[in-house]
Amino acid sequence: MSIKDGWFSETEVLWPGQKFSLEVKEVLFHERSDFQDVLVFDSVHYGKVLVLDGVIQLTERDECSYQEMLTHIPCFAQGHPKKVLIVGGGDGGVLREIARHPGVETIHMCEIDSMVCEVSKRFEFCTASAFGDARLKLVHEDAAEFVKKEGNNGYDVIIVDSSDPVGPAETLFQPSFYQNMKQALAPMGVIATQGECLWLHLPLITTVLRACAEIFGSVDYAFTTVPSYPSGQIGFVLASVEERDLSTPASTPNAAMTEVLRYYSPEVHQAAFVLPVFAEKEIAGVRRRSSKE
């Protein structure tokens, strides 16, 4: 356990030479599942924290910026999703946000590690509020195999809320997985995947975008700020089979959703695609934006 003198420090995996630390009030849970080390602790300033294999997955203080953006960018870019697939997301945050879309009729969720779901519910994370939604079908399987098996299932939106490309999530960054997601999309469907950090993983990001550009008609990159993530920032790979503008919402939140959102807005949606100069120089040549823009 990476806790010393009352402080938790992340394990260096994809960001050598730096660590993020949080002061611990109480360790609530620590066990190893069939797939990874799972740690839950209550922190001094960030609320409850979920850690997988030594890396922070969420804190209750700043989870909204990740969950809302990963969910609502593809949903509002698509416009009116009815059938949604969530890959990963065992803490329930993406599920919570999908459940806020009244037009969604079916939610499939594939999380390989049931322990992540169970501890999120057991310790009442603010993200774990929609597991009882009647629209949800939750399975615990290998996501790469699940998506391949699903075939042409007509999903309007597929959201991949994965950990970093090591361990059980490694297969979710391979071109074959993106190809299988393409087959599972409905016409005008949109995918969004966790896309790593511009400050730390730009070569990996451009590799993924280049591979996606061989598969999809539109491929783009957006980002958000998350203080407890490495370098305080994380991005998303967005793609659609058709050539389209993913940076402009095709619909907007209704009044009820607007009341509960803490980070996402149509304006923030569009701004998320405006990249800093150093990243724009690298990504501009590998993304695929609509020729009409």
UniProtKB/TrEMBL annotation:
<keyword id="KW-0808">Transferase</keyword>
<dbReference type="InterPro" id="IPR001045">
    <property type="entry name" value="Spermi_synthase"/>
</dbReference>
<dbReference type="InterPro" id="IPR037163">
    <property type="entry name" value="Spermidine_synt_N_sf"/>
</dbReference>
<dbReference type="InterPro" id="IPR030374">
    <property type="entry name" value="PABS"/>
</dbReference>
<dbReference type="Pfam" id="PF17284">
    <property type="entry name" value="Spermine_synt_N"/>
</dbReference>
<dbReference type="GO" id="GO:0005829">
    <property type="term" value="C:cytosol"/>
</dbReference>
<dbReference type="GO" id="GO:0004766">
    <property type="term" value="F:spermidine synthase activity"/>
</dbReference>
<dbReference type="InterPro" id="IPR029063">
    <property type="entry name" value="SAM-dependent_MTases_sf"/>
</dbReference>
<dbReference type="Pfam" id="PF01564">
    <property type="entry name" value="Spermine_synth"/>
</dbReference>
<keyword id="KW-0620">Polyamine biosynthesis</keyword>
<dbReference type="InterPro" id="IPR030373">
    <property type="entry name" value="PABS_CS"/>
</dbReference>
<comment type="similarity">
    <text>Belongs to the spermidine/spermine synthase family.</text>
</comment>
<protein>
    <submittedName>
        <fullName>Spermidine/spermine synthase</fullName>
    </submittedName>
</protein>
<feature type="domain" description="PABS">
    <location>
        <begin position="5"/>
        <end position="241"/>
    </location>
</feature>
<dbReference type="GO" id="GO:0008295">
    <property type="term" value="P:spermidine biosynthetic process"/>
</dbReference>
<feature type="active site" description="Proton acceptor">
    <location>
        <position position="161"/>
    </location>
</feature>
<dbReference type="InterPro" id="IPR035246">
    <property type="entry name" value="Spermidine_synt_N"/>
</dbReference>
